[in-house]
Amino acid sequence: MSILPKRNELGFYEIRLESIGGLGANLAGKMLAEAGVFGLGLNASNFASYGSEKKGSPVKSFIRFCDQDTEIRIHSPIEQPHLIGVFHEALYKMVDVASGLGPDGILLVNTTRSFDEIKSDLKIEYGTIATVDALGIAVEEKTKVNTAMLGALFRICGFLDPEAMKEVIRKTFEKKYPHLVEPNIRTFERGYQSVEFKTYQMDINSKGMKFTRPMPQLGYQTQEIGGVLTAQGNSILKDLGGSRQGFLPKFVQEECIHCAACDTACPDFCFVWSEGEDKRGRKQMFLQGIDYQYCKGCLKCVEACPTTALSDLRESIGYAEANQVKHSFPYVTGGIS
After folding, report:
1. End-to-end CA distance of the chain
2. How far is CA 247 from the centre of its chain?
3. Beta-bridge partner residues of 14
4. What's the predicted TM-score (pTM) here?
5. Could you give all domains of the chain from N- to C-terminal order, each with its CATH number?
6. Which of 4, 187, 245, 312 has CB atoms 3.0–4.6 Å from 147's, for a disulfide?
């Protein structure tokens, strides 16, 4: 008798992990599949999908489980998963993370927000929402988000053996990073114990959340005449907020000495300046704030700041928009026009 709780028409239990590069979703998918194979004797496959600039860009990891008598002969992306794991909740700005979720599907989100807020922001109509503060656990244990998410995923996938996953963690880290074995096992256990659930029933008028493939903005039918690109290679219209891995710089203007050390360290010109006069009437550039649209959360500015004007802050939904100081292009940075 199969231990898999559900299977699609091809006999697979399918999981899709939605993340950004740098949070370890690719490794988590590999470890998840390995635990199913060596721990329970299941057949499993895993592969990931990401662009050329992996870190900070959207990443998907796909895992398929099936019984031993079922062969896995397909390697296509998973469009109608039984379980979705969202490693970074800001992804909803760029990716339809709940796409393809069925009425009996489960969506796991790394967040501290309420179930109703997640349902509203991610436009989820039905299914079970699971939440875990994977980032908070990872920060406290000095590990990565992926191990805490694995713990939550194992709690949701009741057919998987947590002890098998602990052995995979030991095998993964003990050779190169032996000092990380126990912290990652603790992170896994805390993720396993901390996950919470809430189920929303499907409305009779619901049209469902079918999977839709994102189409390129320009193609052979939509390309402008002559192949003209109206916007050159720049990020003026791009929101890089989805690249932040949970933290951003907090700016306190009253404590700023306008030394421009932050602007010198910032790789993306996120700081907004304006010209004014000091107490002696001399012209000087004054820092007005941060344009969070272009901030990737590298926190190099925090390290460079000689005062307490900049500090690292765990990001909450809406903070960047409420505290953003926008550039007016062409803009002036670093006190040099």
Report:
1. 72
2. 12
3. 64
4. 0.78
5. 13-200 (3.40.920.10), 241-323 (3.30.70.3270)
6. 187
